[in-house]
């Protein structure tokens, strides 16, 4: 890679680099302040919480790259959690079949979102808000009260630590990036998503498959949200139809996407940045706890951080608009 290619790559991924640097700084402060310091249980717990939000943030990234948004990711997340607490139990073979069903349901939810948005010609924000409410209704029917279970051996394997103290959840996240995000990003559909987010009209005139690209983005979003809900079941060993939980993960996924450098206007960003954005958001919450900040003030500080991140993202759009105004 020559110097010019390096500069281009850095500019393309500078949001992800910034989020990664922010995470390293905040996490170092957290470890330095935390009483027990750098221990396997502390790192594993932090990794599990971070990975949980990172997976949902990845789900949010795909529609956002096409200049859309998915307000149902939190509810698909909750639905998958409730469904997994029923199905991912028993013998390893039964649990494996349950996992397949849970992921298939999440994928179907995403597919429904995409089909309605594309062929029903409805705005993504309205469509996913409505479908999210429906998905939560199914979750509530499955789990009127918290309960259920999960295959404990599998849960312990995926939420514990491997040899050397490496959290298993980080390996799970790496596998998701390698098996889902990287093939998608390098595919024709992945490149088309960026083209649509940048300028849908120009993409259409260039022969980019607009409809198929959007449907695939929302379908994969549903799959990733279901993966997050499945992982939540492994952590909690139960299912709960909580609207507050679904709403929190939806909003935090958007925050993580923005912190990770992905433009809410579409066309720029990556799931890698969103992953680091999720870890930043989670670590900030832990940091506020370590500094013994009143829990009532924590949402305020997180809201301020989100506002600053969104504002910084908007500045990029403002600069672009000002450059375009020169040609009027």
Model description:
- By secondary structure, this protein is mainly alpha-helical.
- The protein has a single domain (17-325), classed as Orthogonal Bundle (ABC transporter involved in vitamin B12 uptake, BtuC).
- 77% of the residues lie in helices and 0% in strands.
- The protein has 14 helices and no strands.
- It has helices spanning 3-12, 14-33, 40-65, 73-87, 92-119, 124-142, 152-159, 168-186, 188-198, 200-205, 210-236, 243-259, 271-290, 298-325.
- It starts with a helix and ends with a helix.
- Residues 320-328 have low confidence and may be disordered.
Reading the helices and strands in chain order gives HHHHHHHHHHHHHH
Number of domains: 1
Beta strand %: under 5%
Query: Considering DSSP H and I runs of 4 or more, what fraction of the residues is helical?
Result: over 70%
Q: What would you call the structural class?
A: mainly alpha
Radius of gyration (Å): 20 Å
Average predicted confidence as pLDDT: 85
Classified by CATH, the class is: Mainly Alpha
How many helices in DSSP terms?
A: 14
**What is the CA-CA span between the terminal residues?**
37 Å
Q: What is the strand tally?
A: 0
| Shape, per Cα inertia axes | globular
Instruction: Using the coordinates shown, work out and report the CATH topology.
Output: ABC transporter involved in vitamin B12 uptake, BtuC
CATH architecture name: Orthogonal Bundle
Largest sheet: none
Low-pLDDT sequence parts:
320-328
């Amino acid at each position: 890679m020559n110097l010019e290619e390096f500069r281009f790559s850095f500019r393309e991924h500078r949001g992800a680099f910034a989020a990664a640097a922010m995470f390293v700084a905040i996490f170092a402060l957290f470890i330095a302040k935390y009483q027990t310091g750098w221990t396997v249980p502390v790192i594993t717990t932090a990794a599990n919480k971070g990975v949980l939000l990172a997976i949902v943030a990845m789900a949010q990234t795909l529609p956002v790259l096409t200049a859309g948004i998915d307000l149902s990711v939190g509810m698909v997340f909750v639905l998958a959690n409730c469904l997994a607490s029923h199905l991912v139990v028993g013998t390893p073979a039964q649990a494996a079949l349950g996992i397949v069903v849970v992921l298939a349901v999440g994928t179907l939810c995403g597919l429904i979102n995409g089909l309605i948005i594309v062929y029903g010609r409805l705005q993504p924000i309205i469509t996913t808000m409505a479908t999210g409410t429906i998905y939560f209704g199914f979750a509530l029917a499955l789990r009127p009260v918290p309960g259920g279970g999960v295959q404990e051996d599998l849960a312990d394997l995926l939420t514990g630590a491997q040899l050397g103290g490496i959290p298993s959840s980080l390996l799970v996240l790496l596998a998701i990036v390698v098996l889902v995000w990287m093939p998608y990003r390098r595919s024709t559909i992945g490149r088309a998503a960026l083209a649509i987010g940048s300028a849908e009209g120009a993409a259409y005139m260039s022969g980019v498959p607009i409809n198929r690209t959007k449907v695939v983005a929302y379908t994969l979003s549903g799959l990733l949200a279901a993966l997050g809900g499945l992982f939540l079941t492994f952590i909690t060993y139960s299912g709960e139809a909580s609207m507050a939980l679904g709403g929190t993960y939806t909003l935090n996924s958007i925050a993580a996407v923005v912190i990770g450098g992905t433009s809410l206007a579409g066309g720029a960003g990556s799931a890698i940045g969103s992953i680091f954005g999720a870890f930043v958001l989670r670590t900030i919450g832990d940091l506020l706890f370590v500094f013994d900040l009143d829990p009532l003030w924590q949402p305020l500080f997180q809201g301020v951080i989100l506002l600053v991140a969104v504002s910084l993202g908007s500045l990029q759009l403002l600069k672009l608009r000002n450059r375009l105004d020169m040609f009027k």
